[in-house]
Amino acid sequence: MRSLGPMGGEEVASGVGRGVEGAAVLGRSDPEAPGRSDRRELELRFEAFVGAHRERARRLAWRLLGGDTSAAEDVAQEAFLRAHRALGRFREESSLSTWFYRILVRQAANHRRWRGIRERMGGLGSADGPDEAAVEAGDPGLRRRIRCALEALTRRQREVFVLVHLEGLTLRETAGLIGRPEGTVKSHLHRALVRLREDLSDLRDGSDANGAEEELP
To answer: Which of 9, 10, 137, 207 is a good FRET partner for 196, with 20 to 30 A between their CA atoms?
Structure first.
């Protein structure tokens, strides 16, 4: 299993450095692309962003992918690389964070879709399941139950639940990140909570199923 540690420090960051030369070409081909100095400043901002966000990106991918550690590392790394290649199209219309995590959520959804296709065609999915040793202490059985319940949600319900209840984003932030109206996000979240309460009803014993989210890694 590859380590995510070098991502941003060596792998992505060095790629950022190597990409500076290509930035000038990209700038000349696009009349609206930032100038050389602006592009360099953006490169430096992105390099710092990678260093500050690589663990959160891996964690979010891990949650969106149902605890597949190897796939989460691949998806997070690919999202950083895709974002770097697309820096010339970043227009500051949203924050760098919102722009990047939109790419990551889309990359995770693409990975899940292709994984499903491979499974239906009889191919092997990722060889690595949840890495129980890599998450904080808790009841492994309960974690598996919650992961299975999350897997049963639709893509949007799962994304919204993870972003709001596990990552702590507001409804407005989540709406901006996934590109949906705030009312739609609220509806997805409501349906997700209803479904999770139903699937985990035997665990409630007087407490709301929302409390089970504390057991999620």
So the answer is: 137
Among 107, 97, 33, 7, CA closest to 65: 107
- Identify the residue whose tokens are 């919204």: 160
Determine if the pTM surpasses 0.85.
no
The mean pLDDT value of the chain amounts to 75
3-state SS class at 94? coil
> What is the extent of the structural domain holding 110?
1-135
Are 35 and 109 in the same domain? yes
Taking each helix axis from N to C end, the angle separating 140-151 and 182-199, rounded to the nearest 10 degrees, works out to 130
Q: Is 180 left (phi over 0), alpha (psi -120 to 50) or beta?
A: beta
Cβ(75)–Cβ(108) below 8 Å: yes
